[in-house]
Structures are given as C-alpha cells and as structure tokens.
Amino acid sequence: MGFACIDHHRQIRRGFPEVIYCPGKTTEQIVKIFSNLAEKGNNVLATRAEEHIFEALAETKKFPQARYERLAKAIVLEQKKIPGSKAVLPIVTAGTADLPVAAEAKVTAEIMGQRTELIADVGVAGLHRLLTVLPKLQNANVIIVAAGMEGALASVVGGLVDCPVIAVPTSVGFGASFGGIAALLTMLNSCAAGVTVTNIDNGFSAGITATLINRKIEANK
Q1: 185: which residues sit within 8 A by CB, 6+ positions away?
Q2: Looking at the whole model, is its pTM more than 0.85?
Q3: Pick from 49, 77, 105: which residue ends a domain?
C-alpha cells in the first residue's frame, strides 16, 4: 500500500469527509468525482460549489440525501454517523457579510461531528453584543472568528478567553481593505496570545483545525 493510500485511510478513520474543491473543475468532473467518492460509502463535502452543480448531481438521483448549503456554497452528503462533540464550537462573525465564510467553517466542522453555534454581528462596531455572549465563549475549547474590514474582532476575542482562537480574515471591506489583506495583517500582528490565522476566506481550514483541537481536548478528558 502506497503512502497516499495510507494517508487516505488514516483520514477516513479520523472521521474526515472526502472533500472536493470545486473551482477550476467542470460540472461534469465534479459530479463524477463526487459519485466515485460517495459510492464507497464515505461522507463527502464539496466546497465552493455553485447551485447548478448541486442541481446536476441531484439529476443523477444517486444520492437523494445530499443537500445544498446555499450560504456556505457547499454540497454535503452524510452517510456515516460521526459521534457528536461534547463541547460546542462557537463560530463568531464580526458582521453579516462575513456569514458565508463562517457558514463554510460550520458545515465543515459539523460533517466531522462537531456541535456548533453561530454567533453573528458582534464586531467592534457593536462590542456590547459580544459581551452578552462572553460566557459561551469562555466555556469553549476553541473558537473560530471570521472578520473583514480591519479584522480587529479576533484580537478582542483572544484577549477575553483562555482557549485557542482561529482567526479567519474575510475579503469584506472597502478599497483599502485590499480584498482581506488588511484583516489578514491585523490578525497576524495580533498581540492577543493564542490567536492563529488562516488564509483569507478559508472557513474550511478553520473548521478542520478547530475540530482537530476539540477532538484532542475531549479525548484527554
């Protein structure tokens, strides 16, 4: 068995879904890949999928349980039940415009068995709203924060909790935000200990990383 096969089986044992990144592939290619993976009985997650791709998959009538998460632009097929996490994973957004990135993180974590809670619109323009949910954040093992504009929310949350904060800079903002680069640099330069940063708009990576952290913590309790 080659190293690629060994790695593949390790991922399946850990409850990883099979993942398809849709941009750059034709609809026909995605449907074929999705079918090949799903026919093996695995959970499948197609990210950055436009709705017409889901419609093409639905037309095959092979996987009626597959669903389309419109906000996250994700196709989700759950065929294997993954044990649910004990702790809730908070996914926090600065504004409503950050929700698509947060939704991608949410569906990624959930297909891996995480219980999640989406907490939206608690950015620095309305910090009083963040304070109302602070007890939930302080009880978490790990937190995902998605923010655009200047990206300050990750530092604020990081300074209030004693768990890892996974910061996701989003491409939301005016011209000088440079498509998320301003938020990325703010997060990378955070003085709040425990803040780590994904690539711009990469909710998928945040969902995977938060799940791995939560699993390790819960396994050792």
Answers
A1: 151
A2: yes
A3: 77
